Amino acid sequence: MSSKNKKNPQKPSQEGPSNPTPPPGEQPTQPKANKPIIVDIHTHMYPPSYIDLLQSRTTIPLLRSFPGHPSPRLVLLPSELPLLSHPSPSHPPGRPLTESYTSLDAKIAFMDKHSISISVLSLANPWLDFFSTSPDTTTTTTTTSPDTINAAAIKINTEFELMCQTHPNRLYFFAVLPLHPTTTTNLTNLTEIVSSLTTSTFPHCRGIILGTNGLGLGLDDPALDPLFHLLQDLALPIFLHPHYGLPNQVFGPRAERGEYGHVLALALGFPMETAVAVGRMYLSGVFDRFPRLKIILAHGGGALPVLAGRVESCLRCDGFLYKMEKEGKGGRMERSMGEVLRSQVFLDAVVYSEVGLRAAIGAGGEGGVGRLMFGTDHPFFPPLGEGEGEGEGEGEGEGQWGSVVVNREAVDGVLGEGSEEAGMVLGGNAIRILNLREEEGGEES
Ligand code: 5CU
Q1: Residue with the nearest Cα to atom 4 of ligand 1?
Q2: Is the CB of 266 under 6 A from ligand 1?
Q3: Could you report the per-residue pLDDT of 330-367, keeping only the tens digit for each?
Q4: Distance (Å, whole) CA 296 – CA 116
Q5: Residue ranges of domains in the chain
Q6: pLDDT of residue 442
Q7: 278: Cβ below 6 Å to ligand 1?
Q8: What CATH number was assigned to the domain covering residues 31-57+103-383+393-438?
Q9: Tens-place pLDDT, residues 197-213
Q10: Is the pLDDT at 410 greater than 90, yes or no?
Q11: Whose CA is nearest to atom 1 of ligand 1?
Q12: Ligand 1: distance of its center to the CA of 337 in Å?
């Protein structure tokens, strides 16, 4: 990791017009030179009750054993669905359920191996979306009662809270919400659950993780307004994460037959999904209605940083929206997409390249460096075992994970190893933005 490329360092962000000065206790934390505090804000787990849920299911997401393969496999992605009905004996769909997905000891060992002081845990995709009407209708479960879904969310959040309590100062979490179509008629319950996240029951909760599905109609669904209102009022950020990617047909029949593994779905489908979700929120006026809502986008905002200008341009030239505005029927946003990105949006630094990282920093404007937070996406993208086919031998491996090193090197390469700016992205920003304060009697990393 070299400091030769100290290019384009930028100043810390003021958090936009809605948050001109950080409140007391949210002052920027400056890490010590050369030994930055590393905070991982993008790190997943499946706690025990979620594994039970996966085990009980017959369609994605599920856990399934395949003859000739020692460990059960986690089959999660819509792109894996065609392979589930005709699994190849040598390359069954999914990924082996290793300890990395389920064990807190494995998470701590991973953190220690990568000098990560603090992790903000979250349930991995697809959260509890399968209880809702999803874009992939085969994953719909309509018979589950709202009480059961609420109870599942509370149980999972409690499991995360307890994990955090066993490692004070090292672990926090983003909670999962029980979103389902009946939520709108059941808002009191949802309000109670969301409000509880800021009480002494969940002292380690720092926001919520959300997919792009919402209640089944996406995040521009006006039925979500009460939720956004509440999250804004409680100052609970959304960590927005993709899961559905793009429809399988986009990638062609060879991808549908599994010939390209997960590459297209994860590398190209996920980032487009994130960009589309935020574009829909923007055009529907979510950010105008909730200007204090904070949203953290996974994978450096996906395709959004490079496409935000194009969204603005298309909006400026759209005859239909122009006419709507003239007729006083809306159509225009109060702020440009760029302004929203510079004031309400934060990005993780899980982009795997200097080019991508520069775009993510640029999206935040002058204060872009102050809006970016390091992440690993653990336990996804592990090192693969030597000579093992299709990830069967994947695991912790001996050294640091290549997927993590590449992200760390991009930060050091763009901002300069040991620089103040690199320290902000690696940990200082997360400590400030997510208010990761020291607890008494906490453990050292
Ligand atoms: O490899 C994968 O399937 C995934 C996934 O499902 N979610 C994620 O965040 N990264 C990779």
Answers
A1: 380
A2: yes
A3: 777 889 999 999 999 999 999 999 999 999 999 999 99
A4: 20
A5: 31-57+103-383+393-438
A6: 66
A7: no
A8: 3.20.20.140
A9: 999 999 999 999 999 99
A10: yes
A11: 380
A12: 27
